[in-house]
Amino acid sequence: QVQLVESGGGLVQPGGSLRLSCAASGSFYRVNVMGWYRQAPGKERELVATITRGGSTEYVDSVKGRFTISREIIKNTVDLQMSSLKPEDTAVYYCNAQISVSWYSTREYWGQGTQVTVSS
Description:
By secondary structure, this protein is an all-beta fold. It contains no helices and eleven strands. The strands form two sheets. Strands 2, 4, 5, 6, 9, 10 and 11 form a seven-stranded mixed beta sheet that branches.
């Protein structure tokens, strides 16, 4: 009924750039906070960046100055522009959103994940 679909991801050399996109679709009233998480093999899933409907952003320290999160309220989309990529950024990246599916219910949704590999 509600889906988050990511696009982008792939193989890039250190120092390169990549843009990830995520779109919410289905039946709902409002998409609230949106964000990106990532998980490397053998490590815990970590929060990368979040953005509110008002445009307030938050980033994990390791990506500050290199990654930029943005959204389009009308289109229910969120992007993650990644620059100056490092091998340590290699992970599966997941789109996340808090979505009001009715006037009384807000639920958390996840995308399927997309692989980002930074390597020479």
